[in-house]
UniProtKB/TrEMBL annotation:
Transmembrane segments: none annotated. Keywords: Signal. One of its GO terms (molecular function) is odorant binding. It comes from the Eukaryota. Residues 1-22 form the signal peptide. SUPFAM superfamilies: Insect pheromone/odorant-binding proteins. InterPro entries: PBP/GOBP (IPR006170), PBP_GOBP_sf (IPR036728). This is Odorant binding protein. The keyword Signal applies.
Length: 142
């Protein structure tokens, strides 16, 4: 059960764009994905490191991530659904940066991995990194 709480701790900021979504839904999604693709406590603890260097992540970790983002409706197979991602990210501070977000998506969607899980992981890591950079830039401009 400790593993579930660790996963939710990291996934809520990344994967819960809709504020009204119940935590239980996310917990059920994470639980189901962990059952399909077991991930070690060590990998979860190295979450940030794995997203900076995708070669360090196991196939199960990448497939677990794909399972979660597919469950959120952001990807169908290994194809990013642009508008679903924009709806999540373009809330609050980034609402004024939709054009820049579409540019980020266009760039990140060019990445191709060894398999579907790897592709989704690489695209997701790219989106996360570049969206975070845009967010930092936006916050500094206040």
């Amino acid at each position: 059960m400790k593993l579930i709480y660790i996963v939710i701790y990291f996934l809520i900021p990344l994967y819960s764009g809709e504020k009204s979504e119940a935590i239980e839904e996310l917990q059920n999604l994470v639980t189901n994905c962990l059952q399909k693709y077991p991930v070690s406590d060590d990998e979860l603890a190295r979450f940030g490191e794995l997203h900076k260097d995708p070669s360090l992540a196991s196939d199960n970790y990448k497939c677990f991530g794909m399972c979660v983002v597919q469950g959120r409706g952001w990807f169908i197979d290994d194809v990013l659904i642009d508008d679903a991602y924009i709806k999540y990210v373009a809330s609050d501070v980034l609402a004024e940066h939709v054009d820049e977000l579409y540019h980020i998506i266009k760039e990140c969607k060019l990445l191709v991995g060894d398999n579907k899980c790897d592709t989704v992981f690489q695209v997701g890591s790219c989106l996360e990194q570049k969206s975070w950079e845009l967010l930092k830039k936006s916050v500094k401009s206040f």
